[in-house]
Amino acid sequence: MAAVAQAPPAPPASAPARARRGRVPAWRWAILLVAGIYFLLPLYAALRFAGIKAYGSVFSRTGFTDALWLSVRLAIITTLITLALMVPTTVYVHLRLPRLRRLMEGITILPIVIPPVVLIVGVLQVAPGSLKATPWLLALEYVILAMPFAYRAIDTGLRALDVKTLTEAAESLGAGWGATLWRVILPNLRTAMLSATVLIIALVLGEFTMASLDLYETFPVWIVQFDQTDAATSVAASLGALFVTWIVLMLITWAGTRQARRTGGGEVTLFTVARTDTTTGS
Asked: Given 3-state DSSP classes, what are the helix, strand and coil percentages for the chain, each rounded to the nearest 5?
């Protein structure tokens, strides 16, 4: 008997639709190209202006190491204080005072509405003299500036979780508030906390107004001061700081996304956290 060739299975009906969805319209590529040119062309011009030799002289300039180390310390301290304040507060508002979420959103937006010059002048008027003599006053001021970004990142992470159910389950197993926060809620907020960390570090490493009025030579202030005497060195330091900051933020984002994929969480982004049905805990 002759073998009867079997016809290949027909493709699913949704294949054409998936193919159409997989195609990116040409106008999107055009917008992406224009945006890329808009951002990369000034960087290329700055690189041509500074020259390669200027990068070698940046590290030997007076005050470079001290200014960079001060900015790094301020970024670390600001991140720790901001997360220590905003995480418990945001969780408590979500659980116990949900009606105050609108009020919290309005309060946390004030540091963006009020100019930094007004904030720093008010702080310098009421701050004790012993605190003015230390750079930690600047870290506390940065906590205020970072509050809007940290609150929204953590709030978005909490919205992606069923916090009430997780808390009730932990309490039914005999866990107290501290154990619930540390062993149940925080592991599921790891992605949101990393997103907040990205925003806080970017803010601190680029802030100039408060540091200059506080008379502290952070890295942005050091760059502006050299701009008056050696423009090439200032531009080279600015580009170096931009690339180093970008690398640090990408490493944080990559680490958070890798951890989230391993545990089933959402990816680390600046303002959003993908909703997931998988929770972690210990």
From this structure: 75, 0, 25
Residue 199 CA to residue 112 CA, distance in Å, equals 14
Radius of gyration of the chain (CA): 25
Q: Which of 259, 268, 255 is nearest to 156 (CA)?
A: 268
pLDDT digits (tens, 9 = 90+) for 153-176: 898 888 888 778 888 888 888 877
Give the separation between CA 33 and CA 26, rounded to whole angstroms: 11
Residue 175 CB-density burial (10 A; 0-12 exposed, 13-18 middle, 19+ buried): middle
Residue in 36, 89, 70 with CA at minimum distance from that of residue 196:
89
Q: Check pLDDT > 90 for residue 134.
A: no
Domains of the chain with CATH codes: 52-263 (1.10.3720.10)
Distance CA 15, CA 23 (A): 13
Top mean-pLDDT range of 1-5, 181-185, 191-195, 201-205: 201-205
